[in-house]
Amino acid sequence: MYCPFCRNADSRVVDSRLTDDGSAIRRRRQCPDCGRRFSTVETTSLSVIKRSGVGEPFSRGKVINGVRKACQGRPVSEDDLAMLAQEVEEAIRASGVAEIDAHEVGLAILKPLQKLDQVAYLRFASVYQAFESLDDFEAAIAVLREESLPPAASADAVQRPLTAR
Hints:
Blueprint: E1 12-18, E2 24-30, E3 37-43, E4 47-49, E5 55-57, H1 60-70, H2 78-94, E6 99-101, H3 102-116, H4 118-128, H5 134-148, H6 151-159
Helix pairs in contact: 1-2, 2-3, 3-4
């Protein structure tokens, strides 16, 4: 790390701390040449590779904007969207990759969105899973219904046929 005052190529770390949200490290450094102190902030970079092959930094704002369209008219708050974007970023960072395909980001949004709002999930999934017919929607709805049943209820439904009362 170059000293911003004398451009010396060496510096000594005096103190290190995590930022408030834990996504970066703030370091106090001291130049051995001029003795002045300065701060640096270190973050990991996460790049999203678009279809065109161009890479750009991951943006929670873009996640929120994409999901906001699927949530139009649904009871989803801005705080809910911010939490979803944070959850998506944490999941992607936990995978340990430095570059991720834009389509993979869309797929990473699906699980947290399903928990947040099922109608918004279907809207979003229809784009990212390339639904082509009503059958695709019906299959996705069937999966949602299956997952929303309690474990005992779904097992009973399979074992016992429906009878008229």
